[in-house]
Amino acid sequence: MLHAVNPLLEFDEMRLQCALSTSHIKTRMSKLLAPTLRMLPSTLVRKRRELPLRGRVLVTQGSVVTADTVVAEAYRDGELRIVRAAEELGVGPEEVTRCLRVEIGAVVRQGELIAEIYGLWGLLKTRVLSPIDGTIEFVSQATGHIGVRGPQDRISLRAYIDGVVAEVDEGRGVVVEAQASFVQGIFGVGGERVGVLRMLDIPLDCSVTTSCIPTDVSGRVLVGGHSPSLEALREAASRGAVGFVTGSIDDATLKEYVGYDIGVAITGDEQVPMTLIITEGFGVLPMNSRVDEIMRGVSGNRVSINGATQVRAGAVRPEIIGVPSSLQVSDRAPGPEQAVSEGLQIGSLVRVIRVPYFGQRAVITALPRELERIETGASARVAKVKLETDGKEVTVPRANLELA
């Protein structure tokens, strides 16, 4: 059994993986201090919401939005299905065109006739049907294949938090801001979810069992206790809870809940029924009283949670954001201790964590949108930074930076 572990978030992937999977190794890590995670009862939270490809922004600057508001959308090309028409018809590639019964660009339904040929004096015929709903995109003269493109996929980008649209980046996305409580966890699984926060009626040092789970938790984010049993997690999920925030968890329970040994370099895409956020570590560690106090302050309110965790460069922490029902735009610019921003920003103080500028502090001066070729030959998103030591401006891959 893994002893209580309160891992430093600056551990590299290998050391944290060891803490998760090597349960027979006893450790003194419980004596290490936890890193300083943000636990703020009220702060200006800014969330940049960005489409993965160019699209259309649906809101304007100053718009009041809820977490479920679709703020931007984009359309991605649908699936391309290749129909081997020449082989099916038994003709040469150059003959497929004359066998077509639809034009290039035509919209077809699944099972609709798209090509046919008659044989044996017209008594027999061979037919080719569309495998999907879509559009006839091309007919290859070289191969005799027909390309059928499926319907476009709509990508909807939601606001994630209740707030106000502070910035609009046309075609890309928006920045949503709100005055809210903000708590970071140390580890999590599962992606973005929104629900009403409900505190469990148990002490901080109580292990969570199925008897601790209330009956009516549909749409709720449950908070409290530590070391939930697998049965308790499954019971909460089966009753409709969308999130669970607790002090600690046993590594074996986590593995069973996710369904596999989890790689902890990046989490958040796990197909779990309920987002799980750990505030203290692995083993038996009660929830921090400060977290409990802040969570009780927003009990009964809607909160936005995200279990995404990244322990490599550009560290990402799980988060719980509680926004009050009345939304206001701050009438003053946030100071460095007031704003909680997602990702790197121009003016951010950062530390370089890779050679040749390892350990140096710098200020971001530009964040180019386009990918740039770096020394390794790969293309990556980069930042231009001004080094504190000599004022020199250099270009560094964003993955090699962390907020200082």
Fold blueprint:
Elements: H1 13-21, E1 39-50, E2 56-57, E3 64-65, E4 70-76, E5 80-83, H2 85-89, H3 96-99, E6 107-108, E7 113-119, E8 124-129, E9 134-139, E10 146-149, E11 153-158, E12 163-169, E13 173-184, E14 187-189, E15 193-199, E16 220-223, H4 230-238, E17 243-249, H5 251-258, E18 275-282, H6 289-297, E19 302-306, E20 319-322, E21 339-341, E22 349-352, E23 361-366, E24 372-373, E25 379-380, E26 382-387, E27 393-397, E28 401-403
Parallel strand pairs: 1-21, 15-16, 16-17, 17-18
Antiparallel strand pairs: 1-13, 2-4, 3-12, 4-11, 5-10, 6-9, 7-8, 9-10, 12-13, 13-20, 14-18, 15-19, 19-20, 22-23, 22-28, 23-26, 24-25, 26-27
* Helical residue percent band: 10-25%
Structural class: mainly beta
Give the distance, in angstroms, between the N- and C-terminal Cα atoms: 36 Å
> What's the Cα radius of gyration?
27 Å
The overall pLDDT average reads 84
Q: How many β-strands, per DSSP?
A: 28
CATH architecture annotation name of the largest domain: 3-Layer(bba) Sandwich
Q: Tell me about the biggest sheet?
A: 12 strands, mixed
The helix count comes to 6
Number of domains: 3
Mind telling me the CATH class of the largest domain? Alpha Beta
If you consult CATH, what is the topology of the largest domain?
Glucose Oxidase, domain 1
pLDDT < 50 stretches: 5-35, 326-341
Shape field = globular
| Proportion of residues in extended strands | 35-45%
